[in-house]
């Protein structure tokens, strides 16, 4: 995982916004917000908060797709899981 990547999970929305801002203020020119499955909408919300409130002139690029991952219940079963990767550049 890249040091500029933020993986969206169970934390509150603003935790990810602050993590992205800390990364950008630490000298990075970009941040990548990644999410899978039901967390995709939270990743979009994080990117939109960053874009509208803090990075008005930033450039956004989005990658979407499907990954094959083993099931949590049965590692022998492979599941298709959607993902999104949102890159914000200063």
Summarize the structure.
The protein is α+β, with helices and mostly antiparallel strands. The protein is built from 2 helices and 4 strands; from the N terminus they run βαβαββ.
**Uncertain regions: pLDDT < 50 for 5+ in a row?**
none
| Radius of gyration using CA atoms only | 14 Å
The helix/strand series, from N terminus to C terminus, equals EHEHEE
Write down the overall geometry: elongated
Strand content: 35-45%
- What's the tally of helices? 2
Head-to-tail CA distance between termini: 21 Å
What is the subunit arrangement here? single chain
Give me the CATH superfamily: Alba-like domain
Give the strand order, joined by hyphens, for the main sheet.
Answer: 1-2-4-3
As a percent range, the share of helical residues equals: 25-40%
Give the integer mean of the pLDDT values.
95
How would you characterize the largest beta sheet? 4 strands, mixed
Structural class by SSE content? alpha+beta
Please provide the count of β strands. 4
What is the count of structural domains? 1
What is the CATH third-level topology name?
Translation Initiation Factor IF3
* CATH architecture classification: 2-Layer Sandwich
The CATH class turns out to be: Alpha Beta
């Amino acid at each position: 995982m890249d040091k500029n990547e933020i993986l969206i999970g169970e934390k509150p929305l603003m935790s990810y916004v602050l993590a992205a801002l800390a990364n950008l203020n630490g000298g990075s020119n970009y941040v990548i917000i990644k999410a899978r499955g039901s967390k995709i909408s939270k990743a979009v919300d994080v990117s939109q908060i960053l874009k509208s409130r803090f990075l008005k002139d930033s450039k956004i690029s989005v990658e979407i797709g499907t990954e094959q991952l083993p099931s949590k219940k049965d590692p022998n079963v492979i599941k298709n899981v959607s993902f999104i990767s949102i890159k914000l550049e200063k």
